[in-house]
Amino acid sequence: MTTSSSVPGAVISASEGLAALVDVLAEDRTVIGPTCRDGAIVLAEISTADELPHGCGVELEAGRYRLVSRPDAMIFAHSAGPQSWKTYLHPQRERLWTVDRDARGRLAFQAEDVAPPAYAFLGVRPCDLRAIAVQDRVLGGGPHTATAYRRRRERAFVVAVECTDPGATCFCTSMGSGPGVGREDGDAAAYDLALTEVLDDEGHRFWVRAGSPAGERVLGRLPHRPGDAPSRVAAREAVAAAAQHMERAMPPVDLHALMAGSLDAARWDDVAARCLTCGNCTMVCPTCFCTTTEDVTDLTGDHAERWQRWDSCFDLDFSHLHGGPVRASARSRYRQWLTHKLGTWHDQFGESGCVGCGRCIVWCPVGIDITEEAAALHAESADRQAAAEETP
Amino acid sequence: MRPQPVPYDGGARPTLAVFKLASCDGCQLTLLDCEDQLLAVAGRLDISHFLEASSAVRPGPYDLALVEGSVTTPADAERVREIRSAARFLVTIGACATAGGIQALRNFADVEEFRATVYARPDYIATLTTSTPVSAHVPVDFELRGCPIDRGQLLEVITAFLAGRKPDVPNHSVCFACKRRGTVCVTVAHGTPCLGPVTHAGCGAICPAYGRGCYGCFGPSASVNLPALIPLLRRDGMSDDDVRRALRTYNAASFAEVEGAPS
Ligand code: SF4
Ligand code: SF4
Ligand code: SF4
């Protein structure tokens, strides 16, 4: 973004500026943003900025989520809602192809080819920006691209919003994915606009940076003023403070190696005794991508469809081969989830599958905490090593 | 040896029979409730025995038999063997037929006492001391759960039978469907007790979508950890008695068999 000022970016007000942003985006896009519903801040289609969660906050703990009203008017001071952007980019169910049989018994296959919706995602947190990049590599990269995903992704306009009030379950700092955007490692998805919310004596406003020509065009249409030093400093400080009061962290060890060395750990039995194998963790995780397919036929027998739907390594059918599931025990299923997420994901995709959003901690009904499990595995492995060194 | 499904080959329509044992009729009514699809079903299957729809009855054998209800009398036990021998493909539908239904509460009580208290002439009553699923008496080819069953799943079972394929009826928990549907978890966000994590999917996670906990109408899922769930139910305000009662409804007998179930 170029402005006449020496400070990069621009400033928009939290009232007219944000309202105009939603209006401009809604002109030719489906705007998805946070909004309050059923006692949570969910993602949903919005048509005006009034629908955003003004003054709403959340109290998060393992297995617990409570919507609270904040003492201030902050709009984006919350985290770890029950859905992520994969709800839109990688929907829970989609048709892949249909086939019809004509009177002479000939089959005609038709690949699903509907125009992808043009989304504008408003309020993508830095961890989720990273999660989108992770799914880009899984679904959009490699020799076998998920075409529908890629088309939705290419058309999406991303408005990132930095975090100033992380929840008690967040640990993005230790995963290097937040709470600010545009960190040096640079492997997050590109944003079109990045916003940082500031509320102080100077007013309620956003410091805005454009990350693409499309972002610059949108910013140019908003009532804005050039970036000023106080706004930029306030924004930077708020994000730095967020990093400071991040309550959870992954153990600072090589998690990839820890997972590879922990396949026989006793901790898996401990967590399996607590785990419901309900699959909630994988459904809420913004990077979990696994799907299965189902074939639907109609009563005439002349029309069939293949659909793809989310699956989970906690589902017994997920590993069902001839004769039964390969991963029958809860131990083997939890181990699959954690060792893939933190370990073998590196082998497959060259990075971690966890971005530290904390959703799996919050939305696990029994509050199983991925950071606590990793720490326990690390402690067990350290004990094992110490014991081995003592043995002559 | 279980019979194999008969794929529709374009010849004579396969015959369908619907039978009822001890039950409320709700599950077989689900078939009549198929509205737009009902005519298509009748077009593909020759409905030979369905007393709820027509008193015209043709004798077996039947290609597909749907059986509702549990076995609670010596006569039912005999009848279910007759049904089995007349059916090529036998599908039991609903909590009664697949788990013994709410009437399986008798399995935990003294039936003699009930008989003496309830009936003026207890000696007229021929009843078994238990209510059991059809599968406890004869081999069953497919069990469709629910109280009542889900219409979409029933059509899927019939359609799959016609196509000679396995029905797509997942064995995982209600939570899977709840999250796919985008519902805010009532346990995590509201502290409402919910049986979803141990309950077989199939209803589409209706109750949590209306802010209520799952009642367990579809019985235990394929992967249940009751000792992990019960402390949550207790935390969210249920007494030990409430927990016992919650697990002793339409699928009382099948939840009672799960490890860690309250006695
Ligand atoms: S594993 Fe948990 S914390 Fe990590 S990205 Fe997935 S949901 Fe978020
Ligand atoms: S870790 Fe929690 S959310 Fe995941 S399957 Fe186990 S109980 Fe369910
Ligand atoms: S509301 Fe019930 S069924 Fe839905 S995710 Fe929560 S525990 Fe599972």
TrEMBL record, chain B:
Domain of life: Bacteria
Pfam families xrefs: Oxidored_q6 (PF01058)
Keyword annotations from UniProtKB, A to Z: Oxidoreductase
Residue intervals of the NADH:ubiquinone oxidoreductase-like 20kDa subunit domain: 24-160
Protein name: Oxidoreductase
Protein's organism: Streptomyces varsoviensis
